[in-house]
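Subject: design request, 301 residues
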């Protein structure tokens, strides 16, 4: 029996399009590599549904600055509290692991570190340098926190010329107080604008989730805002409650709606929009970068 799109609005029922099998063998081999290097991945910490597919590739999103976040976002399963001081060797360990995996596109993210003077910007800078030394032919993507709106801290990252600068807005503005306490949509949009204005060659990326209580109109408005902020790439995925500790799903949006949002983004002029129930920020990140570069070359020609 096929899922009824209307019935799938019920948050208690997981639709068939969100069910995905996991291979314990693929997961185990990659986890051994990360644990031996004392590294964390957002794939594991955030309980990504695509973890088996990505680990088999292999690919992963490295999480620097430890695994404890200073923010208390209601959707996130990453540990929260008072982090330890950063491991100064972490960037080198991460670059070595990426080299062992033979990655041609390295994605680096972090927990939010409001406790650090530069909010972790220098750790991103060191990580970019180490990856470039270990894998000179690889592209580098950073997925950063908002640096509390301090553009001078963000510029520490911009100066090291990542191929992609990604910062996720996560949800619509109305829901920030309950879903992203300590953050503001305006702050995130200004950070994306600052990246766009810093260097035209930098690929700017952002993403958000649906299913937290937003309306169709709010989704459209957010896509327009991301276009106005200068995003080349946007990702849209379905929120799935990681554990019982996180905020429950309010709605499972049907796959047809994701297709419509992707079309809206492309019609506005966003170069690459990937939208689907299981889409996550770093899913097929290398492919997105290549497509943006291709469309840019066509525009210049």
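Subject: RE: design request

Done. Sequence follows.
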């Amino acid at each position: 029996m096929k899922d009824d799109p209307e019935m799938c609005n019920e948050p208690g029922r997981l639709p068939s399009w969100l069910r995905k099998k996991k291979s314990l063998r693929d997961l185990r081999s990659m986890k051994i590599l990360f644990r031996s290097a004392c590294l964390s991945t957002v794939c594991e910490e955030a309980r990504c549904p695509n973890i088996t597919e990505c680990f088999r590739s292999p690919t992963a999103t490295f999480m620097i600055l430890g695994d404890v976040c200073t923010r208390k976002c209601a959707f996130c399963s990453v540990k929260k509290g008072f982090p330890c001081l950063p491991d100064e060797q972490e960037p080198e360990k991460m670059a070595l692991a990426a080299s062992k995996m033979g990655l041609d596109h390295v994605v680096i993210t972090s927990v939010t570190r409001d406790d650090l003077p530069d909010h972790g910007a220098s750790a991103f800078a060191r990580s970019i340098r180490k990856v470039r030394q270990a894998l000179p032919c690889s592209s580098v993507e950073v997925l950063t926190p908002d640096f509390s709106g301090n553009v001078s801290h963000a510029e520490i990252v911009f100066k090291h010329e990542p191929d992609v600068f990604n910062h996720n807005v996560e949800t619509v503005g109305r829901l920030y107080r309950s879903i992203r306490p300590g953050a503001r949509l305006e702050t995130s949009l200004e950070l994306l604008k600052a990246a766009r204005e810093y260097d035209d060659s930098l690929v700017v990326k952002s993403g958000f989730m649906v299913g937290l209580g937003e309306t169709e109109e709010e989704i459209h408005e957010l896509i327009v805002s991301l276009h106005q902020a200068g995003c080349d790439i946007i990702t849209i995925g379905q929120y799935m409650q990681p554990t019982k500790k996180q905020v429950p799903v309010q709605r499972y949006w049907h796959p047809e709606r994701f297709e419509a949002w992707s079309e809206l983004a492309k019609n506005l002029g966003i170069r690459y929009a990937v939208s689907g129930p299981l889409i996550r920020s770093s899913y097929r990140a290398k492919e997105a970068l290549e497509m943006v570069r291709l469309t840019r070359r066509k525009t210049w020609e």
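The mean pLDDT is 87.
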